[in-house]
Amino acid sequence: DKNLAATLKNFPAAAIKLGGYTDNTGDAAINKKLSGERAKIVSKELIAAGAAAKQIVEAEGYGQEFPVCEANDTPECKAQNRRVDLKVAAK
Predict the structure, then answer these.
(1) For the whole model, what pTM was predicted?
(2) Which of 21, 34, 37, 89 is most buried, by the most CB atoms less than 10 A from its CB?
């Protein structure tokens, strides 16, 4: 996201952690790998958009753990669980 990359550029001391997630479809081990790849892609895109690599202190996959829509039983619910979240690690 260009807005997030611009924000990170404007606050060079800031750092974030990225977490990738999936829905509960398929094998849990494959989902964990897929979610990790999802987080790493977002990290690469942020760096390509101008964020400093040192500002992304973690890009990890959690698979189907921690769903935001716990039912995981409709296409809409599953779509909410396929995501990348971020947390501020340093301001």
Answers:
(1) 0.92
(2) 21
